[in-house]
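Entry for 5'-deoxyadenosine complex. Fields follow.
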Amino acid sequence: MSEKYHIVTYGCQMNVHESEKIAGILRRIGYEDTPKIEDADIIVFNTCCIRENAENHAFGNIGALKKLKKQKPNLIIAVGGCMTQEKGKTEILKKKFPFIDIMFGTLNLEELGDLIARKKAQKKKVIEIREKEGEIVEFTDAYRTSYPNAWVNIMYGCNNFCSYCIVPYVRGRERSRRPEHIVNEVKALVKEGYKEITLLGQNVNSYGSDGTTGTTFAQLLEEVASIEGDFRLRFMTSHPKDFNEDVVRVMEKHRKICRLVHLPVQSGSNAVLQAMNRRYTREKYLDEIKMLKTRLPEAEVTTDIIVGFPGETEEDYLQTEALVKEVDFASAFTFVYSKRQGTKAAEMENQIPEEIQKDRIMRLVELVNSLTRKKSETYVGKTVEILCEDYDGKKDLYLGRDEFGRMGYFKSDKNVIGQFVWLQITRANGISLFGELQQGEK
Ligand code: 5AD
Ligand code: SF4
């Protein structure tokens, strides 16, 4: 009987896809997956450190394994991802959780198989964190778990150093994959039957700006969108300092590309944007939205917003509220500023007290929810195309998303996972839509 693995993932889609690569490595060396953590022979934590609560989560869950490790001394516990890449974190992890067997980072993921072999050959723990990013390693055997959706990295790392953000410190400098590797990967995925491809990068608009690929993001998008087949295409994340008309022109030409742009604004106040080192103004942001909606009137925008950044005044916060109302985002991810050691913002003197941060996030969440609820209601009576992703056994309903990422639930006699279907929307509840399956779907 083969040994079993269980992966615990924290954080963003980038990490979810990296866990698929980790799963690919583990399967390559003979492990099989198990949904039950207590049945596993190896448990891998793929951590995130973007906000303190993500770290606390991981700390809690790793700590909870102490007992299991005592019962199963041969169990291998491996910790990787962004947290191990943070300065001084491996020392803390070692002290707090002496039972961790392997630590690896974001820059040497591909070595995990060798690290496991080393651990099996010795009693000592194996800690291998790389400081500098090396050549891009191409993965051909990621074990994908999100059919009919597939994520494809187009680049790694980040050069932007937004003053609050730890990502550039834990993921290294920007590196772009060769366009032919990306195109071939997407072709293969479409051939396998994947129906939604998301191109991933911390700032997709600067794809190729390291000068190594000779291709801009707009050109890459055009190439990928020209691949034959029945699939839709997304990309994230766009940075407002680099988002441009060339990309929108490609969107206009190719109906395969979802009319949705994830364009994190972070704040509606120019003073805060400057302190965040975002390198655009509120006016530039609003101009970009105008340009997008002029060319593509049906386009929608989603965003990320941080409240309680050092120095944010009530006036600054109210400008964020005003911007949210003006843009009318399809949805917004809202965060309380979290102080990250080693970033510029952590050194700023005017940190905002927790009560004020809490008050602002509550007000913002309420505003965002009321706007998305209103938007959902406009769907009632319309017919929308949904890519069916899953079946919810408890509700006895199938579910999937429209091109704007809105979740639609419906009844179906046959399994339609992986198919594009049309729903007549009968009811909206918060951000979810409920509808009736239309016959004669494409
Ligand atoms: N505190 C709060 N939110 C943060 N983000 C990044 N760093 C922090 C931080 N220190 C948010 C940003 C980014 C999203 C992925 O996470 O809004 O766009
Ligand atoms: Fe962080 Fe800014 Fe890079 Fe995004 S662009 S990962 S927020 S530093």
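NOTE: Residues 230 and 331 are 26 Å apart (CA to CA).
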